[in-house]
Amino acid sequence: MQTAPRDAQLPVTREQGLEFLRQMLLIRRFEERAEQAYTEGKIGGFLHLYIGEEAIAVGAMAGLNADDDVVTHYRDHGYALARGIDPKNAMAELYGKATGICKGKGGSMHFADPKKHFWGGYAIVGGHIPLAVGLAFAAQYQNQPRVAVAIFGDGATNIGMFHESLNMAKVWNVPMIILVENNQYGMGTAVHRASAVPDMVTKALGYNIPAAQVDGNDVLAMRDAMMVAALKARRGEGPQFIEAKTYRFRGHSMGDPQRYRTKEEVEKMKARDPIVRFELQLVEHELATQDDFAFLRNDVDRVASEAVEFAETSPFPDPSELYSDVFAPEASNG
Amino acid sequence: MAEKSYRDAIKDALREEMKRDERVFIMGEEVGVWGGTYAVTRGLHDEFGDKRVRDTPIAEAVIVGAAIGAAMGGLRPVAELMTINFSLVAIDQIVNNASKMYYMFGGQFNCPVVIRTPAGWGQLAATHSQSFEAWYASLPGLIVAMPGTPYDAKGLLKSALRSNNPVMFIEHARLYGVTGQVPDGEYFVPFGKSDVKRAGKDVTIVTYSRMLHVSLAAAAKLAQEGIEAEVIDLRTLRPLDMNPVIESVKKTHRALIVEEDWVSCGMGAEIVARIAKDAFDYLDAPVERLGAIEVPMPYSKPLELMALPEEKHVIAAVKQMIA
Description:
The complex is a heterodimer of chains A (334) and B (323). Chain A contains twelve helices and eight strands. Chain A has helices at residues 14-39, 54-62, 77-82, 87-94, 129-141, 160-172, 191-194, 201-205, 219-234, 263-270, 274-284, 290-313; strands at residues 69-72, 118-121, 148-153, 176-182, 185-186, 189-190, 211-215, 240-245. The longest helix of chain A has 26 residues, at 14-39. Chain A is globular, with a radius of gyration of 20 Å. Chain A starts with 13 loop residues before the first helix and ends in a 21-residue tail after the last helix. Chain B has 323 residues and is α/β, with parallel strands linked by helices. Chain B is built from twelve helices and 14 strands. In chain B, the strands form three sheets. In chain B, strands 3-2-4-5-7-6-12 form a seven-stranded mixed β-sheet, sandwiched between helices. Chain B has a five-stranded mixed β-sheet with strand order 9-11-10-13-14, with helices on both faces. In chain B, α3 (60-72) packs parallel to α4. Chains A and B meet through α5 and α6 of A and α3, α4, α5 and α7 of B.
């Protein structure tokens, strides 16, 4: 498993390191505020929290170019924020407000912003993996140096679309990166109870796709793994596979009683908190101090509060929005 | 004008648009080297090469899903599914991705993908002889075209290839060899325009795809007996243009729907409901439906033919309504 070398100099500048930390803190604070709003009944539907997995989104997105294409699963807040979507519009989407990133029509599971090449969170497990094959093919077809990334959990590797997609991506040699977050559970079913092999990288080898297993709680290891994968895919080496080993601190969604795991197990895994670990690394390498962390925590607290304020004071969509956007406007022929 | 087969009319639309727009490409099982299982794409691989006529694995979900992704990425994909029966393997992509994307993400990006697939039968037994157009037509956000003539096939496919929306383009395996007049120059048949294929005053027959031909043949025989049937071809099932149907029923006071689908929950059910709402006071008889017998399709030829509506059934149904 790849981790950033511990004895060498930390492969990050102070500015980059603090930016990665800021993003991870922002995702966490954003979600804590979302969780609070959910329990107050201000957010409906499903809310799948990403808390504990922030290093994957932040590291992976840092390893990409701004015009690389990303599709992800329904646990998508972290990726949206790491991709640079304004927390205000993200929170407003959770509230179902007109100022939401998708005008309140998508909700928690369907954030998207094509201007940032963030093509959305998708809520049918595995259903978006083929989209990344197509996005990668479009880049190849147009001779553009983009890669397309499909992000999903270990649970999605058991569904047919995963296998169809990996196979065709390899046959067509498209610049696609498959990023699997192995957080040990597909909803409440542990990996060993659902998957014939415990390591997701094994499945990639079945399609002759190069695969790396990475500590998903190590933001720098994630960034490096993504940079390497993107480099290889960009220079024509076809699809690349990354398995990020991680752990979800919260339930699958807000309505999860978590009967499938013990409190002791969760507490033990929290010792590997990606934020705490990265802070320790930064201090250890004298790149940052507790004062920096306090400043960042205040800053993301303010940003998250402003996002909540924005969402709460934004209007609900105009009733006419119910009927708009079913079909895209047609251009005149010719 | 030239006499052309339904197959060649479709191929002409593909070729014209591929020549015009570099973004248009075809992907599917055996569309390239083989030339298409129903020979629709024959010659296109030679003409346009591997890049634009792409063979795929037998993997319908990723065929449609990757086509959708390619459309998001700026291309104009045509995904061919060998038959509509296999679209079931890809139905999640069609239902949850293609038809939802524009709305669900607040109109931020569209999905101009064309999914071409034939319905049909021919001693292929239960899993290869189905019509699922009503399933797809039930989806907001998806255009469903089902042409019955070479002229409409080309014109509708041209519209599909220029559309900014996902289009389910349902052909019919037993129409590929049927010929008709097709203009030499470029033309388009718009979505959501039903077409009166034969004018009449005594009864309205509403139909589409292969049943158009069965209905027109029946109408010709009925005319010999002095019964003038008006035959309306829906051409697109979503958007659905009921105006010519309602106008016709106001004139004829009788309507018969002829479809190759099973009758229960088929397109006819929708047509009946709309006629009942918009032309109820004009009806002199209950609206009737003719469709496939509600059994899984049998292999044996006599049994298979018994399961499908034929000209004689249309004639009998009309006579009963008029009596």
